[in-house]
Design a protein that fits this description.
It is a single chain. By secondary structure, the chain is mainly alpha-helical. The protein has one domain. Helix 1 packs antiparallel against helix 2, helix 1 runs parallel beside helix 5 and helix 6 packs antiparallel against helix 7.
Length: 228
């Protein structure tokens, strides 16, 4: 049997990984640029960058875990309800499954035959898939999502942290900005490719909002630095 690889199987980890990498790169780079604009001191900028990377990775992991756990709880509650209904009224559930297949274009006789065979094979799996829309490859996985988000955030935050450690204070803001935009462009292209979307549109969208974020924080840093 030929098992085709579909992009929908990547939904669980791809969303968390792309979000984490984008957030790590944009937020940490913006933090570096903003602090550098306000106080061009290498130690202060590097401390802010490392603290931002650590706090952001932990925050992303916690937020993703809570969010996906809520989704997992909802899925489990729906599946538990299906188990009870299958145990209490199997004929009604089979009829419900038959109606679903009829609505999808099968004749009544064929829909009933399919429902009977799927019920005999795995009744709960058939209802989870065809009634609830819950598939194994799209199930909520909180720990996987949390780890992917934290790791991706740290990976995205690493370039501005490294640049804050090696670049001179005079070149720091521009260096971080240029490198970040280039990385965002590449990351947007990769995410679009993995998701089957147009690469250029994805690249420009990510790079544009990264530029906006860094520009705003640089302006804030400049204003507060001037006041101080």
């Amino acid at each position: 049997m030929n098992n085709e690889a579909h992009r929908s199987g990547r939904i669980g980890w791809l969303r968390a990984a792309v979000l984490g990498a984008n957030d790590g790169l944009i937020s940490t780079s913006s933090l570096v640029v903003g602090v550098a604009a306000a106080q061009p001191d290498r130690a202060a900028v590097l401390l802010a960058a490392v603290a931002g990377m650590a706090a952001g990775a932990l925050s992303m992991a916690a937020g993703e875990y809570v969010s996906v756990s809520s989704q997992a709880d909802t899925e489990e509650a729906d599946m538990a309800r299906e188990r009870r209904e299958l145990a209490e009224s199997p004929e009604e559930e089979k009829e419900e499954l038959t109606g679903i297949y009829v609505s999808r274009g099968l004749t009544r006789a064929l829909a009933l035959q399919v429902a009977e065979q799927l019920t005999a094979h795995d009744a709960h799996g058939a209802h989870a898939r065809d009634e609830l829309g819950i598939h194994d490859h799209t199930r909520a996985r909180p720990i996987q999502a949390a780890l992917a988000s934290a790791a991706a955030f740290a990976a995205g935050a690493a370039p501005p942290v490294i640049l804050a450690a090696v670049l001179s204070t005079a070149a720091l803001a521009w260096g971080v900005t240029v490198v970040t935009l280039a990385l965002l462009f590449g990351l947007g292209s990769l995410a679009a490719h993995l998701g089957g979307a147009p690469r250029m549109r994805g690249s420009l969208r990510v790079a544009f909002w990264g530029a906006v974020a860094m520009g705003c924080t640089a302006l804030i840093g400049r204003l507060f630095g001037a006041v101080v």
